[in-house]
């Protein structure tokens, strides 16, 4: 173990603090840009809906939550105008959730904010160090980097 390394329990806390700082600042800026009711859970849900849309069951599976919990989140997103339910073209009995223009706008804005925050981190620690950090995280997470089920994991 390196002399500079802290205790093992500190690593997940530092990673989580970095995650929280990015997410919290993104939502603060989203609020300034016309999305004051957007919450992290809603962002995960909209990512689970995706550009092609999804059923409530698919969203639940992607988030690692029940269909009912996914439905409750989707109901809230629909009431705020971020998603809409439409007939599923492959099953007349089913509904498909799709992102509205407002939902797409929030995701585009969040993407641009993340790019600016990444640039801020590069200025703070250096572009080479940030690139190395991202490469190292890709190595140690090996295929887990883009899981959407954090909400369910934190919920127990």
From TrEMBL:
Keyword set, alphabetical order: DNA-binding
Domain HTH marR-type per the UniProt entry, residue ranges: 1-142
A Gene Ontology molecular function term of the record: DNA binding
BP-aspect Gene Ontology terms: response to stress
InterPro entries recorded: HTH_MarR-typ, MarR/SlyA-like, WH-like_DNA-bd_sf, WH_DNA-bd_sf
Pfam families assigned: MarR_2 (PF12802)
PANTHER family in the record: MARR FAMILY REGULATORY PROTEIN, TRANSCRIPTIONAL REGULATOR, MARR FAMILY
Protein name: Winged helix DNA-binding protein
């Amino acid at each position: 173990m390196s002399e500079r390394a802290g205790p093992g329990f500190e690593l997940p806390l530092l990673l989580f603090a970095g995650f929280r700082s990015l997410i919290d600042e993104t939502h603060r800026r989203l609020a300034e840009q016309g999305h004051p009711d957007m919450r992290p859970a809603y962002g995960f849900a909209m990512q689970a809906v995706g550009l092609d849309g999804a059923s409530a069951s698919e969203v639940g599976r992607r988030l690692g939550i029940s269909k009912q919990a996914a439905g409750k989140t989707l109901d809230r997103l629909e009431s705020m105008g971020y998603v809409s339910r439409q007939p599923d073209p492959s099953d007349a009995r089913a509904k498909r959730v799709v992102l509205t223009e407002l939902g797409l706008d929030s995701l585009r804005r969040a993407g641009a904010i993340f790019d600016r925050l990444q640039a801020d981190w590069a200025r703070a620690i250096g572009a080479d160090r940030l690139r190395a950090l991202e490469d190292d995280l890709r190595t140690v997470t090996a295929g887990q980097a883009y899981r959407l089920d954090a909400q369910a994991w934190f919920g127990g």
